[in-house]
Amino acid sequence: MSTFTGSITTTGKSEAIRLDKALFRLHPEFRQKAKVRAQVISPGHALISVIDDETLPARDEDPVVMAFLAFIENDLKMHPGRRSRLSKTSLRRAVRLTKNVKVAHDETIPENVTL
What we know:
Elements: E1 6-11, E2 14-19, H1 21-26, E3 36-42, E4 45-50, H2 63-78, H3 88-98
Antiparallel strand pairs: 1-2, 3-4
């Protein structure tokens, strides 16, 4: 995963985050004038996403989960040799543990459940 440094500055009457030009070279989706969304995910940490007016994410989409899934997807593409199949024992155990679990696709996970 690439890391880029920068600084917080003022531009006109707004605050701005200035980042290394290398970020924009490697990731052209962060082009000038692109619309972005910043979501604070914990103190001192933010997730910045390019947003497209035509394809706004679902309201219930979790930005942290989406970022994690994108990370996993990229890692699988970059290092396909790391993939391994679940063992038959693990699959049997998963089936046994979830055998009588009823799930509705529109069900939401309660706030007090930690994943």
